[in-house]
Amino acid sequence: MGISQQQPLHHSGTIELILDVLAFKPIGILGGDEFLILLTEVQDIDGVRHVADAVFDALLASHPVGGQAITITASLGISRYPDSGTTPYELMHHADTAMYCSKRRGRNNYQFFSGDMLHGL
């Protein structure tokens, strides 16, 4: 999907609607197709995996936009406090690093940040 086709998807509110159905409110749209979700009630890594799987299920389904069925590919990067960082900047930067690692592995997957990822940049 090219940039001109991505814009209607974002501007149509599709991504926000998908996340709303899952009861996740993105706390920031970082770019045309990047958003941030802050989980405060998840206690362990299995809970994070459950949320990531739910986000994938919702995003990867077909969505009607402008009279056409649109499918989305997704790459998620996950960072966890305090393991991945202790400041908002560190956590966002490390989630971004994990997301790009996910994209390199073929998309439609998620990666948890690890320090080894910084050496592969």
From TrEMBL:
InterPro entries with a match to the protein in the record: DGC-Regulatory_Protein (IPR052163), GGDEF_dom (IPR000160), Nucleotide_cyclase (IPR029787), Rev_trsase/Diguanyl_cyclase (IPR043128)
The organism's place on the tree of life at top rank: Bacteria
GGDEF domain residues: 1-115
Listed name of the protein: GGDEF domain-containing protein
Organism: Halomonas salipaludis
